[in-house]
Amino acid sequence: MNKPENYGSKAVPLDVFIKVVSEGIREHNERIGRASRVCGGKRSFQQAFAESYATAPITKATPEQRRLWLLAAEAIRADKTTGEFKLEGNRFWAEELTALRGQQLVVRFDPQALQGSVFVYRLDGTFVCEAPCLAAAGFADKGAAQSHNRARKAWIRAQKDMEKAQNRMSIAELQDIYAPDPDAAEETPMEAKVVRPFRPAAATSGNAAIAIQPDEEEDDYLVRAMEMERSERPGLRLVDPDEY
Hints:
Number of strands: 9
Strand order of the largest sheet: 1-4-5-6
Strand content: 5-15%
Low-confidence stretches: 203-216
Mean pLDDT: 76
Structural class: alpha+beta
Largest sheet: 4 strands, antiparallel
Distance between the termini: 89 Å
CATH architecture of the largest domain: Roll
Number of helices: 7
Order of helices and strands: HHHEEEEEEEHHEHHE
């Protein structure tokens, strides 16, 4: 309830955070004058620990135990031809994997170092070998791979949702989008307000030859045609062809 206004807006890099915390722990353990029973008010925690560590029997984990405790595990299948396998885009292989081609295996690895060596086991827990990275072509750590996969899955979900929305549209809805509206008013054809009388060509045979008598001048014919058009359409303004 009482977080600062910029809470969560900034974060230091992980390596800086680890360095600062490590320095704080070291300063805490090396501080002189601790009042605990083992320090006696004179020594530090580090001095008291070093003294007891030098004389007490120490039980240490074997490399095999550390691999089982500290590393992540993932089931994977070896290639049918070479025995190699891929982990987050990086290729791994060792000579011992040739005898396990096409088999299901368990790989143990450091999630923060996916381009280093990994440890290969059979499904029954038998250790096989340590496989080096042949081609560092993928992600360097598990976090980057998971972030990429989350973004990719979110994009795929968005594409599927859009496809479902399009498929839910009925034929009637598509008709409403693409078909014209029957209730929409039809456009009234435009009527010309200025008309130039058509000047017919001379005809020499048939009925067309009667349209213009040989003894009738062409200009007289045009004048009579304009007067007839004006009598039938009073609002029409005729253009004298001699003006053009």
